Amino acid sequence: MATLNKIENVKNDIKWRIFAGEFLPGDLIYERKIAQLYNISRGTARKALIELQKQNMLTIIPSVGYKISKRKIDPILIENGFKKDLKSVYGENFEKNRKANFVCSKQKANQYLGSILGISNETPIICVKYSRLSDDSDIKSVVFYYFPYQLLENFLPINNEIFDMVLDDLNLQVNKIRATVKLISPEEETKNFLKLEQNINKVVKRECRFITNDKKVLFYSLEYTKADKSVNVLPADQIFRKVEGFLE
Q1: Burial 66-92 (b: 16+ CB within 10 A, else e)
Q2: Residues 80 and 236: beta-carbon distance below 8 Å
Q3: 166-178 pLDDT per residue, tens
Q4: Most buried among 83, 214, 235, 245, by the most CB within 10 A?
């Protein structure tokens, strides 16, 4: 049991170092150095590295070591001006299929959204909701964007194309993105949005806060993604400043 705990701890710490940018795509790591770094045996180091290789985070280079795999950029950040690796995340038809069931509505902020956006409860906000589709037109994730009403009031009513232009403009004001990525058990409403099968009880939850130079949250997004199709989508180190939890 102790050895299993060591393997798990080492695996998660290496994963965190990858998320944090200490280990970059293309870097080589070696069993001997990992064993020294964590004060463990080479056999334990090997097992931890093999676990990461199974999760597509490492590639084994025979007789050499393990190479950090190229990471796939989180799709919600791709949409927000970081348009790299589109095809590797959503396939050839990403631009065509990326949004469906696009809905924009006005509502009142609850306590949680009010605290994030720095506004009072009951203040009007704009919620934009849509689904992301895979190449076979299956619903892959559902996305919610939340904006203070005054940010979008001049663009209402808003459609898909106008929304893209508004996002491009707002991203010029974004200094950094703080995000959390977790595996969670979804609520019934999320299950219905994603049309989850009964035997699927986990989804990937991404929360992103888009922060200006003066440290204010300009807008906020929430995305639920089918875990069976997206567990290999990892955050980019140069974009994420905070990542809690790991994708298994």
Answers
A1: bbbbebbbbbbbbbbebeebbeebbee
A2: no
A3: 888 888 788 778 8
A4: 235
